[in-house]
Amino acid sequence: MEFLVEFEVEVPSGTPASEVERRTRAEESAAARLVDEGHLLRLWRRTAGADDASAIGLYAADSEAQRDRHHARYPRHQHRLTSNSTTWSL
User: Fold this and answer.
1) Chain centroid, CA 32 distance in Å
2) Cα 82–85–88 angle (5° rounding)?
3) Based on the number of CB atoms within 10 Å of its own CB, is 13 exposed (0-12), middle (13-18) or buried (19 or more)?
4) Which of 40, 67, 79, 87 could be 61's S-S partner, Cβ–Cβ 3.0 to 4.6 Å?
């Protein structure tokens, strides 16, 4: 199955810029691993504003539980405010 997942990330206020940058690099690395493994098919970041931290990802997984495990591999997973998912079957 394929899942279209929309999510937003909110970094807690007061987080040092160096920590935000470190986690951003770690997120990019996690996404690259998911791509290499065939789980992340496409990722779009919204560019509405400089502080906009929302994205839409197209994931391949055998179940919603597996999709959630892939999504949880992102370092900032605990900061995700919203996550909406649509299942696509081809």
Assistant:
1) 11
2) 165
3) exposed
4) 67
Domain spans of the chain?
A: 2-88
Euclidean distance between the first and the last CA atom of the chain, given in angstroms as a whole number: 7
Domain 2-88 -> CATH class: alpha beta
Tokens 């496409």: give the residue: 42
Tell me the average pLDDT across 30-45: 92
> 88 or 58, which is more confident?
58
Report which residue type is found at 51: D
Q: Return all residues near 41 (Cβ < 8 A) that are at least 6 apart.
A: 2, 35, 58, 59, 60
Question: Shortest CA distance to 87 belongs to which of 66, 45, 59?
Answer: 59
Q: Is the pLDDT of residue 2 over 80?
A: yes
